[in-house]
Amino acid sequence: MLTSHLLPRRGFIQMGALGLGGLTLPTLLRAESASGIRSSHKSVILIYLVGGPPHQDMFDLKPNAPQEIAGPWKPIATNVTGIQICEALPRLAKIMDKLVVVRSLVGNQADHDAIQVYNGHNPKKPTPAGGWPQFGSTVAKLQGPVDAAVPPFVSLCYTCTHGPYNEPGPGFLGQAMTPFRAMGKTRDDMVLRGINVERLCDRKALLKRFDEMRRDADTTGAVKAMDVFTEQAFGLLTSSRMAEALDISKEPLRVIERYGTGDPKVFMDANGAPRVPQSLLMARRLIEAGARVVTLNYSKWDWHGGTNAEGRANNSIFLREAEDFPPFDQCVSALVEDLHDRGLDKDCTVIIMGEFGRTPKISAQLGRDHWPQVNCALLAGGGMTTGQVIGSTDRIAGEAASRPVTFGELFATLYHNLGIDPDKALLPDLTGRPQYLVEEGSKPIRELI
Question: What SUPFAM superfamilies would the database entry show (predicted)?
Fold first, then answer.
């Protein structure tokens, strides 16, 4: 038993199935609906498009530019007058009134690295001792759980073989603020194998006594982190709420089909993330269950051109766009419509982006290469003023021409939507120095609030 306390977080949740009786998530939701009262909390779903999507082929088309810049796609009208997006995104075009496109995101990193997408800070700039925490870790620290049985920060991200594509971690907040990782073995281990609630409580008391013996000798913070993990594990084991949220089979078939499904075992281009539209549905269910922040990574967007057997350029980037755009169009539109249909659009903010934009000029060898000068982001919900485009780029989508938006402003907006004042909230780094959540001077995007 002494060694069991030294097991990693996963060891504590290998004891078994959630679902020990009591109200299930669907029952709770039905009861809330019938009473006319819905337990509400502010939340964010952050979707990372791994590898950097081509902004000028999706939301910032330049049909009047030379062909080597414009590409093959044509713009189509949306349901908001004056706003056009790619013809391969017709479902999103029909709900543009529920969306916001930021066309002028500047200050992007130049490398394939997810860190800025998850914490809003450029890794090339000075960082505090311990490193910046990712967004969900910060929210979990500041606001804590809505429900003791549901972690405030849940990650649906798949682990990519290219390390920089993965979430950066809790930084100076320490391991106690890591997300609950719902994908993989942790989820499978949420099972009680022949252990009833009484025996579980006995084990919890025993672990607490072991903690007390070790606490005075601990100088690394490991015991404190383990306290958080253990409490979370026991909360999950004695409630069906989290297990229900993770089980999308509880949804009507028509809803699952509306989002679409993909194979979680197929990692796009080997080192990207799987293309799994059902992750967006699971994210919505987790938000309803009580999570404050859900992160997920979706597909692989680092496409380059090449040559065919005769040595001629084939610009395979556009073949991949034709493959990836339709399921993306389907699942994102499904999520946004679902949030509105369920009355969550005022409370839940959705943000979708990659680490940088793409080069204006199309080359035979690289298609559209990395382009940090300008990037694009898509937002929805959060009670924001939607149905608009913020910022613009020049005639070749190469530079911000008006209203440049920074990552600091973007993340200040997310914090604002959660009820956190980025001007006042401070967190101490490992040296005890207080740190603001976003870069100095960053304010929420005024057009949205």
Answer: Alkaline phosphatase-like (SSF53649)
Q: How far apart are the first and last CA of the chain?
A: 54
The string of DSSP codes covering 57-102 is HHTS--TTS-HHHH-S--EEE-SSTT-EEETT-HHHHHTGGGEEEE
To 10 degrees, the CA torsion angle through 76, 77, 79, 81? Answer: 160
Q: How far is it between the farthest Cα atoms of the chain?
A: 72
Element (H, E) at 379: strand 375-381
Q: Which amino acid is at 207?
A: L
Q: How far apart are CA 115 and CA 121, in angstroms?
A: 8
Alpha carbon 24 to chain centroid distance?
25
Scanning the structure block, which residue is given the tokens 């989290």? 242
Residues whose CB falls within 8 Å of the CB of residue 70, separated by 6 or more in sequence, listed in order: 61, 62, 63, 64
Q: For residue 379, which phi and psi values (nearest 5 degrees)?
A: -130, 160
Q: Which tens digit of pLDDT belongs to each residue from 222-265?
A: 545 545 555 555 555 556 788 889 999 999 999 999 999 999 99
Report the 10 Å Cβ neighbour count for 125.
Answer: 11
Domains of the chain listed by start with CATH number = 39-202+252-436 (3.40.720.10)
Length of the chain: 449
Any alpha helices (H) in 189-316, and if so which ranges? 197-215, 222-237, 241-246, 253-259, 278-289
Residue 236: helix, strand or coil by DSSP?
Answer: helix
DSSP-assigned letters across all residues of 294-340: EEEEES-------B-TTS-B--THHHHHHHHHHHHHHHHHHHHHHHH
- Strand pairing of 434-436 and 426-428? antiparallel
Q: Report how far apart, in Å, the C-alpha atoms of 398 and of each of 59, 85, 356 are.
A: 14, 17, 12
Give the integer Cα–Cα distance in Å for 144 and 142: 6
Bridge-based pairing of strands 370-371 and 357-358 is antiparallel
What is the full DSSP assignment across 333-365?
Answer: HHHHHHHHHTT-TTTEEEEEE-S-EE-SS-BTT
pLDDT at residue 156 greater than cutoff 80: yes
pLDDT at 182: 87
